[in-house]
C-alpha cells in the first residue's frame, strides 16, 4: 500500500471506526501473552558479508557461501524437485521483493547439487491480485516480470509458477501443528505436493501491519484468499497466527533452508514502499531454523533503522498504530467486502525496539519449542567484527 492508497483508505475510515470499534471493544486490548517462552536449543545462523553496491558476482558468491555453510544439502537427492518461495507481495524491485540475483544464485546452486525441477513461485498481495471462486483479477506473473525476478529465474534455468493461475480448486487443506488461533484450515497450493523440498527466500523489511516482514511473515504468500481473509479479519491474533502458520505440516516436512539477501533493507513503512537503506556492509543470512533466521534478520532491520536520516525517522505512516488498524480494515474490505471490514477485529501494532518486542517471534518461540540460542558464524566472506558482535548482543535471550 502506498501513500495514495492510504489517503483513499482514510477517506472512508470514519464509517468503519464508528461501527467496528463499538461492536468489538475487546479487540483493542493489549497483545496477549499466554506464557513466558523457555530457552531453546542452539541454532546456527550463517552470514556472509558484501560491500555497499556489490557486484552480481559478489552477491552470488555470498549466497552460495551462506547456503553451503548452513546446510550440507544431504537432504537433496539427484533429480529431486525443489520449490523456491520468494516474496512477491508487489511488482516493486528488491528489497520490496526478493533479490533476483540471490534467487538466480540459489537456482544455480541447487542445479549444481543435483536438483531436477527447480520451481519459483508465489501469489501477490490482495492490493494487486485477487483470486475468488468466480474468477481472478490481477497477475502475479506480470508483477514478477515487473520486479525483474522472472527474467532472473528463467535465465538461471528454473520454472515459474503462480498459485492463482491454477484456479480456486488448486489448493489443499493443511493445518498448524501448534497453537490455537486459527479457526479454519490453511489453504495451501497443490504445487507443494509435487515437490520434495522448499527453500524460503524472504527479504528484510518493515511492514505497516506486522512491524516487519521476514521469513515467518512470508507464509502468507502461499494462502488462498479465504485463508488470508481469516488472517486479517480476526486481527487481534494476527501476529500469533503468523507464527502458527509456519508449523503447517507441509512446511515442517519439506522446508530445508531460509536465506535472505540483505544488502538493501526496506527500513520504513512497507511492505511495498518505504525508505531503502544501503549499509556500508551488507549481509546474506542463512539458517535451517526459520526462527533463528528471523531473530538475526530482525536485529539487522532494527540496527539499520537506527541509521535512518532524520527526515525519515518517526514518520506517521511508519509508526502510527491508527494507520496499521485502518490499513488492515482496508485489506479486509478488499478480501471480503465492506461488511467483513465493519465486523473485523482491531489490529494492534506494537512498537518494536528490540527483537523481543516482536509478537510474531515471541509466539514463534512458544510454538517452536523455545528461544533458540543463536550462534552467528561467518560464511566465507567475513562480516565486520563490530557488526557481528552487535547482532549477537541483540539476539541474546535473557530468560
Descriptive keywords:
38% helix, 19% strand, two-stranded antiparallel sheet, alpha/beta, 8-stranded mixed beta sheet, single chain, 399 residues, globular, Rossmann fold, 16 strands
Can you offer a commentary on this structure?
With 399 residues, the chain is of the alpha/beta class. It has a domain at 41-177 and 187-229 and 250-314 and 373-394: Rossmann fold (3-Layer(aba) Sandwich), CATH 3.40.50. α3 crosses α4 (100-112), α4 runs parallel beside α6 (149-155) and α9 crosses α15. The radius of gyration is 20 Å and the shape is globular. A hairpin with a 2-residue loop joins β4 (130-132) and β5. The protein has 16 helices and 16 strands. It has helices at 3-11, 13-23, 56-70, 100-112, 140-147, 149-155, 191-194, 225-233, 238-245, 249-254, 290-305, 316-319, 321-336, 338-342, 359-367, 385-394, and strands at residues 39-51, 82-85, 118-122, 130-132, 135-137, 159-162, 171-174, 186-189, 197-200, 205-207, 211-213, 255-262, 265-266, 276-277, 281-287, 371-378.
CATH class of the domain at 41-177 and 187-229 and 250-314 and 373-394: Alpha Beta
Helix content: 25-40%
- Any guess at the CATH architecture of the domain at 41-177 and 187-229 and 250-314 and 373-394? 3-Layer(aba) Sandwich
Strand content: 15-25%
**Whole-number average pLDDT?**
92
**C-alpha Rg (nearest Å):** 20 Å
Main sheet specs: 8 strands, mixed
Number of strands: 16
Structural class label = alpha/beta
State the CATH topology of the domain at 41-177 and 187-229 and 250-314 and 373-394. Rossmann fold
Shape: globular
- Strand order across the biggest sheet? 6-3-2-9-12-15-1-16
Distance between the termini: 37 Å
Query: Helical region count?
Result: 16
The residue ranges in which pLDDT falls below 50 over 5 or more consecutive positions are 10-33
Amino acid at each position: 500500500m502506498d501513500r495514495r492508497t492510504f489517503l483513499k483508505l482514510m477517506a472512508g475510515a470514519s464509517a468503519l471506526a464508528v461501527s467496528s470499534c463499538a461492536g468489538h471493544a475487546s479487540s483493542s486490548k493489549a497483545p496477549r501473552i499466554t506464557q513466558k517462552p523457555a530457552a531453546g536449543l542452539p541454532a546456527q545462523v550463517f552470514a556472509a558479508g558484501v560491500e555497499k553496491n556489490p557486484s552480481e558476482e559478489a552477491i552470488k558468491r555470498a549466497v552460495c557461501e551462506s547456503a553451503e555453510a548452513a546446510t550440507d544439502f544431504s537432504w537433496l537427492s539427484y533429480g529431486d524437485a525443489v520449490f523456491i518461495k520468494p516474496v512477491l507481495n508487489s511488482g516493486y524491485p528488491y528489497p520490496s521483493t526478493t533479490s533476483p540475483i540471490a534467487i538466480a544464485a540459489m537456482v544455480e546452486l541447487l542445479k549444481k547439487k543435483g536438483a531436477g525441477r527447480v520451481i519459483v513461485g508465489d501469489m501477490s498481495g490482495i492490493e494487486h491480485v485477487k483470486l475468488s471462486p468466480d474468477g481472478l483479477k490481477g497477475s502475479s506473473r506480470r508483477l514478477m516480470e515487473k520486479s525483474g525476478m522472472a527474467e532472473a529465474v528463467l535465465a538461471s534455468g528454473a520454472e515459474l509458477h503462480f498459485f492463482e493461475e491454477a484456479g480456486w480448486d488448486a489448493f489443499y487443506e493443511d493445518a498448524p501443528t501448534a497453537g490455537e488461533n486459527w479457526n479454519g484450515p490453511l489453504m495451501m497450493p497443490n504445487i507443494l505436493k509435487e515437490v520434495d523440498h522448499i527453500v524460503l527466500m524472504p527479504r528484510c523489511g518493515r511492514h505497516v501491519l506486522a512491524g516487519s516482514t521476514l521469513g515467518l511473515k512470508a507464509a502468507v504468500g502461499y494462502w488462498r484468499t479465504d485463508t488470508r481473509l481469516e488472517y486479517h479479519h480476526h486481527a487481534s491474533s494476527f501476529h500469533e497466527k503468523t507464527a502458527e502458520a509456519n508449523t503447517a505440516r507441509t512446511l515442517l516436512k519439506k522446508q530445508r533452508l531460509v536465506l535472505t539477501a540483505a544488502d538493501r533493507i526496506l527500513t520504513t513503512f512497507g511492505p511495498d514502499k518505504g525508505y531503502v537503506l544501503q549499509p556500508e556492509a551488507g549481509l546474506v543470512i542463512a539458517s535451517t531454523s526459520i526462527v533463528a533466521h528471523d531473530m538475526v534478520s530482525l536485529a539487522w532491520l532494527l540496527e539499520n533503522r537506527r541509521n535512518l536520516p532524520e527526515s525519515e525517522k518517526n514518520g506517521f505512516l511508519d509508526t502510527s498504530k491508527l494507520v496499521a488498524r485502518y490499513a488492515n480494515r482496508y485489506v479486509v474490505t478488499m478480501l471480503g467486502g465492506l461488511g467483513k471490514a465493519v465486523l473485523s477485529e482491531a489490529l494492534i501494532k506494537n512498537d518494536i525496539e528490540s527483537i523481543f518486542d516482536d509478537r510474531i517471534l515471541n509466539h514463534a518461540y512458544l510454538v517452536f519449542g523455545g528461544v533458540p540460542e543463536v550462534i552467528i558464524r561467518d560464511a566465507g566472506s567475513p562480516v565486520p567484527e563490530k557488526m557481528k558482535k552487535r547482532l549477537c548482543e541483540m539476539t541474546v535471550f535473557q530468560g
